[in-house]
Design a protein that fits this description.
The protein has 2 domains: 106 residues, N-terminal domain of MutM-like DNA repair proteins, CATH 3.20.190.10; 124 residues, Helicase, Ruva Protein, domain 3 (Orthogonal Bundle). The strands form 3 sheets. The protein has a 4-stranded antiparallel beta sheet, with no helix packed on it. Strands 2-3-4-8 form a 4-stranded antiparallel beta sheet, covered by helices on one side. Strands 9-10 form a two-stranded antiparallel ribbon. The radius of gyration is 20 Å and the shape is elongated. Helix content is 25%, strand content 21%. Helix 3 packs across helix 6 and helix 5 crosses helix 6. It has 6 helices and 10 strands, in the order αββββββββαααααββ. It is an alpha+beta fold and 247 residues long. It binds zinc ion.
C-alpha cells in the first residue's frame, strides 16, 4: 500500500495537469459523476495521508489507492480502468482504487495537522491522542490514520527499529519522551523517504522492512503479524526494547 511520501510523489507527477480543463473523464467507478468533470479546470492537487485530492472549482475528487491500487501517467495499464482523466497535455489513469466525488469544503473534511508530511503537523496533538489509549500496541497505534495520517507499514517498521522500540510495546509503558521522539521520527523519516523516492532509490534504504537480518546485531529479524490490522512487523528482539507492565 502506498504511504504518504508515495502520494506526495504522485501529486508532484500529476502537477503537469494543473490549470488544464478535463477533456475526458471515464472509468468504472460506480456511481461516480464523470460528466461533472468535463471542461472543469484542475485548480490544485493535495494529499492527505494516503489520499490524493484533485481540486476543481466547487468540488474535489478523492483517490485512494487502497491495498493494490495502481496508476499510470501518460500511459495505460492492461487492467480495468477505475478513473481516467484526460487533459490537453496528457492523461492520468487509476486502477483498483477508491474514488469519491466531494462537494463539501476540504477544510471541513480533513485535519491537516494530523498529516505527517503537512507543514501544519502537530506533534503535541499526536502525542496526546496516542496517550489517550495507553493499552494499545505501538506497532498498531502508529498506523492509526486519525493520529498519524500517511504512516504506513514500511515507515512504521523503520521508525520503530531506528528508535529501538519493540512493536509489541504498550504505548502507556513507553516513556513519554520516547513516544514523542517516535512521532518526530515519523515526520522526519517520511520526508527522507520522499527524497529517496524522488531519487528512485527508496527500497535501498529500508533497514528492516522486508529484510531478513538485523543490521546492528547480524541475527535474523522476526516477522509477525501484530495488531488488529494484522500488518507485518519486522523487528529485532535483541536491540528493540519491549515495554510492558511490570510482572
Ligand atoms: Zn538488532
Amino acid at each position: 500500500m502506498p504511504e504518504g511520501p508515495e502520494m506526495v510523489f504522485l501529486k508532484e507527477q500529476a502537477e503537469q495537469f494543473l490549470g488544464q480543463p478535463v477533456m475526458r473523464a471515464e472509468g468504472s467507478a460506480r456511481g461516480f459523476p464523470f460528466d461533472r468533470l468535463k471542461n472543469q479546470e484542475l485548480t490544485s492537487i493535495q494529499t492527505f495521508g494516503k489520499e490524493l485530492l484533485f481540486c476543481f472549482p466547487g468540488f474535489a475528487v478523492r483517490v485512494h489507492l487502497l491495498l493494490f491500487g495502481k496508476y499510470a501517467i501518460n500511459g495505460k495499464l492492461n487492467r480495468e480502468l477505475r478513473l481516467g482523466l484526460a487533459f490537453d497535455n496528457g492523461e492520468i489513469n487509476f486502477y483498483a482504487c477508491g474514488c469519491r466525488f466531494m462537494q463539501e469544503p476540504l477544510e471541513s473534511l480533513y485535519d491537516w495537522s494530523t498529516d505527517v508530511l503537512h507543514a501544519s503537523f502537530d506533534t503535541d496533538k499526536a502525542l496526546e491522542k496516542l496517550c489517550r489509549k495507553p493499552n494499545r500496541i505501538i506497532g498498531e497505534a502508529l498506523l492509526d490514520q486519525t493520529i498519524l495520517a500517511g504512516v504506513g507499514n514500511g515507515i512504521k517498521n523503520e521508525v520503530l527499529f531506528r528508535n529501538r522500540i519493540h512493536p509489541e510495546s504498550l504505548v502507556g509503558e513507553i516513556p513519554e519522551p520516547e513516544v514523542r521522539r517516535l512521532i518526530a521520527a515519523c515526520t522526519s523519516f517520511s520526508f527522507e523517504y520522499l527524497d529517496w523516492i524522488r531519487e528512485g532509490r527508496a527500497e535501498e534504504h529500508w533497514l528492516v522492512y522486508k529484510r531478513k537480518e538485523c543490521p546492528r546485531d547480524h541475527i535474523p529479524l522476526l516477522k509477525a503479524k501484530i495488531g488488529k490490522w494484522g500488518r507485518s512487523s519486522y523487528f529485532c528482539e535483541k536491540c528493540q526494547q519491549l515495554f510492558l507492565p511490570d510482572g
